[in-house]
Amino acid sequence: MTLKTTKLRDAITFALVAGTTTLAGTGAAFAQAAPATSMDNPTQLDRIEVTGSRIRSVDAETSQPVLVLDRDYIERTGLTSVAEVLQRISANGAAINRTFNNGGDGSSEIALRNLGSSRTLVLVDGRRWVSTLTGSVDLNTIPAAVIERIEVLKDGASSIYGSDAIAGVVNIITRNDFDGFEARTHLGQYGEGDGERNTIEATMGSTTDRSNVVFSLSRVEEKAVMAGDRTISEDPIIGLGSSQYSGYSNNGRIWNGDGGSLIVPPGAPPSGLAGNPRYALEDTVPFGPQYAYNYAKDNYLLTPQTRTALYAKGRFDISDNLTFRADALYNERRSEQQLAGFPLNGGVSNDFTMSGDSYYNPYNPLYGGDGREVIWSHRLTEQARVYQQNVKTIHTYVGLEGSFEVGSRYFDWDVGYNFNKSDQEDAQIGDANMLNVAAGVGPSEVRNGEVVCVTAPGGDIIEGCVPFNPLSPAGGVTQEMLDYILFTAQDAFQNRSESFTANLSGEITELPGGMLAFAAGVESRKESGFDRPDAFVAAGFTSGNSRQPTEGAYDLDEVYAELLIPLLSDVTGAQLLEFSLASRYSDYSNFGDTVNSKFGFKWKPIESLLVRGNWSEGFRAPPITTLFRGRADTFTQFGDICSEDFGGRNDTIAANCAAAGVPDGFIQRTNQGEGYFGQTIYPFSLGGNANAGPETSVSKTLGLVYSPDFVQGLDISLDWWSIDIENALSTPTAAYILDQCYAEGLQEWCSLITRQADGQIFDMQLVPQNLSVIEVEGYDMNVRYRMPDTAYGGFTFVLDTSYMSKWDSAFTAGDELESAVGNYYQNDPNWRLRANASVDWSLGDFGMSWTARYNSGLNEACPFISDDPSDPFGLCSDEFRRTEDGADGRNRLGATTYHDVQFRYNVPWNATVKLGANNVFKKEPPIAYNAFANNFDPQYDVPGRYLYMEYVQRF
């Protein structure tokens, strides 16, 4: 293996030299045990404040399971973003990340319990962060440099925090009370010499008796990995080679030529004027598979981005009982995705055929042709499609907090204003201006030695028009033509969140088990946002899908109360017995009000055993996109139930179709031919639904925490959890709408369908509705063992696992539930078991950590099934599997284990050097034939060993 980046090679060399020199100069090392981290102790028995409760308590272990990742743990991962750290925890499912290229936008999210990122609430310092228009939070807006720890509440918490806390809560705690100066750098890359990451951070703080201030500046640069540079992603479908390449060749293609499809091959001899070549019929050859285009290699496998952040946080004690707090953050992300050049065409899926009078048309009557209009295509590899984002996030919080005493009772209070805004500017490069394309392939001829656009043969010249030759061989489209037909779309997005909060907590009265405690508070919040597409995109004049602007806002007022009721303590059979109650009232401007409550308990029958449980209601308010989305084009595959060649057609359907005006003998027509239910010719409409209501849920947990007296340093926790969601928001498919209209006779569904006079569906409104149900259940187990210190150093072992026993869903409440556990669907791996196991060793100034990350195997439907066992495709593991319903081929995605290692050494000048490798054994992800674009799901690691060096200097 060769390290191609000189900077990384030099940095590692420096680290090794520094370590060797120091060891030789200091002699014997001092034995020193590494402090236990929060990740090392998931039960968190020593914490004071825990996410999931507003009540401050000496015993911080609540009735709800909380996982804490502290800064030491984050730094041991060798990762440069908080999103990557969170996406590796065992309770996480599938969420968007940097491996999403086609369909990604540079954001990264978390989806606890595989319930979608919009059902996981993300807080920063206990306060809401700005969400996207779809209701999720882009974790890339939060720089890793400012994080002190991350608390993950693996339970519902709408009674405490309000909307979105269905699957759980992620609370990111920023650095506080830092004193001194710290500089950090990270240099890394894959063994293949790509995917470089460079990070530099500087943090300084100052503390006095009455104040503290912290500043942090960071920059992260993460470069791309190309799909063509990995075997698993260099072809559209691995194992099928060029048979899956695109018919939209990078050579000019004629789809309606004499004798069939024709193509202008590379090196074809041009005819016509010098500098303006055209190609005669004799220059073309029949299209064959050798001219199909491998578009996969042009895509990013890992998308690049750069993040720059400035953070400040301060506290000033106005008096002994009154404190002013403020913090602010500015984060800028620049990210990019890349796809192969646009598969531009005229007449295949649109009306932009080449005029018979075009200078470049080989059938032009001037050349002895029949003057036919040419159906054409040309993949514009002369310009890749590039999508760029510039996202600027601003956060500000100011508040007062204090305490007071009434009698012998102490109370804490706080009031504050929280403001978050994210402004995003997108550039789309490589899409075509279809108005100019149409003009460019219109009539053209030679005037004064130049090819010009004309209104008709011998007619007026069209000023500003550049004749376009889509029949050029690969790379033959001139820059002048590209400049005329291409344009850069400029889109703008904004998300804004603004809230006022006030909280009060304290003790009420003495109970047998301790003090009856409470917390109560109010919140007033407003959410707003918009999506303003480029005017050309909104008008539908581009080669891509059009969409209309989205803009909307809603506000809400909330009030909550929480009680902690300690009934017993220090008695036989109940070293501790306490209950917790909470309820929250929320009043939304769009859908009305809702009340959500919870009940929890903690019981210690003996000192070393804690039994805990919780029951809670939850809800998720519909986000701005769901409510206010403007019409957006979507091209979907569907079968028209009214078509006479539809297989499931019956007398009821035929009668309802006739009553709706569908003519006799109607046959669905698609751009792929009659009788084939392919992608619709006309774009259907995705849109918002202002009448959408909230999703509702009920969560239950029951677990135990065991710390045996006879094994010091051992902690074990086991929790059962269950989440049932009703009224889940989902968008009906075209097939479902057609079935409800014509098979069930429900007119409210028929109103979503628009047909032409000939019966062809011209439009269909696809809008989200509260239809679906989801039921999930499983177990979490955490084991932590810190051995007594030995002469060989200190050892800590950690196991963090999540077992999914149930993940059932139904599109509507009346449908039969279907299980997804252990199955793979596109961008949706439903692992039965995920686990992280680690061992950490420290001896004096030396340390090492080893982590194994495990994902269980999955099954997916086999998309390649041969009818002849003697001639199989040979791709799926069980291609000829049969069930009672017939052929049901299946492919097995094997279990995957990744290994990460890090070595660290504290050098004498108050610095630390770290060397690490993630995916040490270069484990390849399992091939998934239903995966989109890359032959493996983006939740798996990008193939290759990632090597890195970190240097931390403290002053």
UniProtKB/TrEMBL annotation:
Annotated compartments: Cell outer membrane
Domain TonB-dependent receptor-like beta-barrel: 490-920
Major location (coarse): membrane
A Pfam family matched in the record: Plug
Membrane topology: Multi-pass membrane protein
This protein's record includes keyword Cell wall biogenesis/degradation: no
InterPro entries, per database record: Beta-barrel_TonB, Beta-barrel_TonB_sf, Plug_dom, Plug_dom_sf, TonB-dep_rcpt-like
Stated family: Belongs to the TonB-dependent receptor family.
Protein known as: TonB-dependent receptor
Native source species: Luteimonas kalidii
